[in-house]
Amino acid sequence: MHFKARVGEKLADVKLQSALKKLQGNFVKGRADRITELDNFHEIRDAAAAIRDRTLANLDVYLDTFERNAKARGTVVHWAETHDDVNRIVREIAAQHGVRKVIKSKSMVTEECALNDALIDAGLEVVETDLGEYILQLAQEPPSHIVAPVVHKTRDEVSDLFAEKHNAPRLTDIPALCREAREKLRPHFLSADMGVSGANFVIAETGSTLIVTNEGNGRLVTTLPKVHVAITGIEKVVATLEDVTTLLRLLPRHGTGQSITNYISVTTGARREGDSDGPEHFHVILVDAGRTKLLGGDMQEMLRCIRCGACMNHCPVYQSVGGHAYGWVYPGPMGSVLTPTYVGLQNAGDLPNAATLCGQCHVACPVKIPLPELLRKLREQQFELKLKPWFEMYALRAWGWLAQHSWLYSMTTRLQARLLKSAADDRGMIRSLPFAGGWTDRRDLPAPEGRTFRELYRAASKNG
Ligand code: SF4
Questions:
Q1: Res 25 pLDDT > 80
Q2: What are the E-state strand segments in 268-324?
Q3: Residues 393-444: pLDDT tens digits?
Q4: Alpha carbon nearest to ligand 1 atom 8, residue
Q5: Cα–ligand 1 centroid distance for 308 (angstroms)
Q6: What spacing in Å lies between the alpha carbon of 37 and ligand 1's midpoint?
Q7: What is the pLDDT of residues 43-62, one digit of tens each?
């Protein structure tokens, strides 16, 4: 979780910087274009936030309803308090059904649990089938984005990787690379004993799980193997199919800049007599792993998250350093709130400060999570728990005292503004600042024009 230590390396990585340019074109512009299709976008966004809040306020009721309805349709429902519980339950299900090969569709909760490692350690073969996740499995890297896990890689890097790992001629055309991956994956779909997926939502009134995908691998994972296990956080429950349709008007638009994804798959129970396909055994694992700690507290709004990724796509910090700099499963602004909350503020101290608080993430979030406000609260907690370096604690205390004494504040800032101006070179730039190297280590700082904001404001008011 040492964000600061990784940032320099990521900024200097030319391939990464080239790969990250995709964010602006594919995701930021895509979202902007797609939301203009909705005449009542702001009403839908309000409704989506209200749906998530209503569910969270009655989470126990909806989870019980889901369990009852899922069981009635033959699903086995498991409750996992920790990541280790998830891994243990999946291993037990695998042992019970004599599973040897597991195919997976993309699931961030299983990344939280390091499920692949746990299954491989138990002697199982695990194959990721989402194209991005498959590339990462070959490269032995973690995802760097929750929707586009391989966004940090260029096409050339993927060409090199496939040529090496598939022992095949190097292809550079994207459709040809996709075909090559498909040819490698198809036999695994046909021979796997167990499919593991996540769930974008679980629907209380029908006892169903729902996944949103573009590649079709999700459908193969959920229907071909004889055993299917869906693993998801407890906060993913929604009351009704009607509620889900509202959320689905926003999720693809904010996630991939699409009006709708290629597939929306709803799974309700195991295969029944007369069904043409589907798993013989269907298990759902509902995961807590830190989520209940957020309920009823300062961070509850974070549980509204529908994992669209828009906050990271729009974040100037994420756009500059990519997801691996954040050190765990969830990057960007949502990760900077979730990671310290799940793994402990003392273990992820850089993350609440890995944001400019520019507000873009809040504006882009389809369920109106006030991410800058939550990050600010985490910073406050760091201060209260004395988790900041001593000099920062003293500096903040001193600033707090100064800000309460108007005349002294005014005098000090006037002096600072004039000193900063005098420190500028003939281009009007400051090359280095004592005690504030973070502002000048990697670029020059434009010097202020020598007057404080208050002085400028007063002058502007006088001039009408
Ligand atoms: S915090 Fe909001 S914008 Fe970010 S992933 Fe979650 S729902 Fe999407």
A1: no
A2: 281-287
A3: 999 899 999 999 999 999 999 999 999 999 999 999 999 988 788 888 878 9
A4: 308
A5: 5
A6: 20
A7: 999 999 999 999 999 999 99
In order of 1, 57, 134, the CA distances from 45 in angstroms are 32, 18, 33
Q: Which residues have CB under 6 Å of ligand 1?
A: 305-311, 334, 364-367, 369
Cα(332) to ligand 1 centroid in Å equals 10
Answer with the residue of higher pLDDT: 433 or 282: 282
Q: Which atom of ligand 1 is nearest to the CA of 334?
A: 1
Mean pLDDT across 71-97: 98
Query: How do 194-197 and 237-238 pair as beta strands?
Result: unpaired
Q: How far is CA 382 from CA 50, 132, 376, 436, in A?
A: 30, 36, 10, 20
CA–CA gap between residue 70 and residue 269 (Å, rounded): 7
Q: Per residue in 30-45, is it b (16+ CB within 10 Å) or e — as a string? A: bbeebbeeeeebeebb
Give the closest residue to 17 by CA, choosing from 333, 325, 282, 263: 325
Among 299, 365, 375, say which to mutate for ligand 1: greatest number of ligand atoms within 8 Å of CB: 365
Residue nearest to atom 6 of ligand 1 (CA): 305
pLDDT in tens, 297-341: 999 999 999 999 999 999 999 999 999 999 999 999 999 999 999
Q: Are 196 and 267 within 8 A, CB to CB?
A: no
254: which residues sit within 8 A by CB, 6+ positions away?
31, 35, 308, 309, 310, 364, 365, 366
Whether the full predicted model's pTM is greater than 0.90, yes or no, is yes
CA of 157 to the centre of ligand 1 (A): 29
1 band by pLDDT with thresholds 50, 70 and 90: low
**What is the rounded CA–CA span in Å between residue 112 and residue 120?**
16
**Sheet with 227-233: strands ordered across:** 76-80, 281-287, 227-233, 194-197, 101-104, 125-128
- Tally Cβ neighbours within 10 Å of residue 449: 12
Work out the angle at residue 335's Cα, subtended by the Cα atoms of residues 52 and 235, and round it to the nearest 5 degrees.
Answer: 30
Residue 181, pLDDT > 80, answer yes
Domains contained in the chain, CATH given = 38-289 (3.40.50.10420), 304-384 (no CATH), 390-462 (no CATH)
Q: Give the closest residue (by CA) to ligand 1 atom 7.
A: 305
Q: Which atom of ligand 1 is nearest to the CA of 332?
A: 4
- Separation CA 126–CA 101 (nearest Å): 6
